[in-house]
Amino acid sequence: MKLVYFSWIRERLDIAEEEAELPANVTTLGDLLSWQKSRGEEFAAVFAHEKVVRVALNQEHADDPATSLEGVTEAAFFPPMTGG
Q: What pLDDT, in 10s, does the model give residues 55-83?
């Protein structure tokens, strides 16, 4: 799966995007977020507060942890948007 990181998340992880082979037990958005936390100190810090990180699966916003990853080829992680 292609994982894409934006804004301060990209800066903190020092990764813009990567191809990742997800473990077989990562089948939902909630699983993906938990797996991200387990990938090291920087990932744990970024994903510690899941409400702060927004996710788009195949370029569509997703916020339900039970959302299936079946057929998903890209997950993007970004902070909440602000505007004016």
A: 999 999 999 999 999 999 999 999 987 55
Give which of 34, 9, 5, 33 is closest to 19, Cα–Cα.
5
62 closest CA partner among 80, 75, 49, 71: 75
Using an 8 Å Cβ cutoff, are 2 and 17 in contact?
Answer: yes
Residue with tokens 């992880």: 13
**Structural contact between residues 62 and 29, judged by C-beta atoms closer than 8 angstroms:** yes
pLDDT tens-place string over residues 12-52: 999 999 999 999 999 999 999 999 999 999 999 999 987 78
Ordered strands of the 54-57 beta sheet: 17-19, 2-5, 74-78, 54-57, 60-62
For the chain, the helix, strand and coil percentages under 3-state DSSP, each to the nearest 5 = 30, 25, 45
